[in-house]
Amino acid sequence: xxxxxxxxxxxxxxxxxxxxxxxxxxxxxxxxxxxxxxxxxxxxxxxxxxxxxxxxxxxxxxxxxxxxxxxxxxxxxxxxxxxxxxxxxxxxxxxxxxxxxxxxxxxxxxxxxxxxxxxxxxxxxxxxxxxxxxxxxxxxxxxxxxx
Length: 147
Description:
The chain is built from two helices and no strands. The termini are far apart. By secondary structure, the protein is mainly alpha-helical.
């Protein structure tokens, strides 16, 4: 336990501490320094608020840019699929065209062969006729203009 003297000493020290803290400083240099530091703190708080608002704006722009990028990526994949389908269609059409061209060339060649055979079959009959009264019929097909 503490004695009365010790209690009185503790109370006296506390009283002097309170008196010293409440007295403050009356030094004009310190007052100027405090004012300049308060001004600095206010300026830094304004800069901090400005930086926060800029950060929020940049975050919004970043979010918009990410959404645009995702949209463009989806569009790219759609276009790539469409392009692959078109390439497939082009290959199919090219194959069909080549097949039809081959069929057409074969048809033309067979027609030529038939015409040549027909001409060769007519040649012996025509060579036997040399009289001027009975002229030979023309060789090959003769197309008459349509009216």
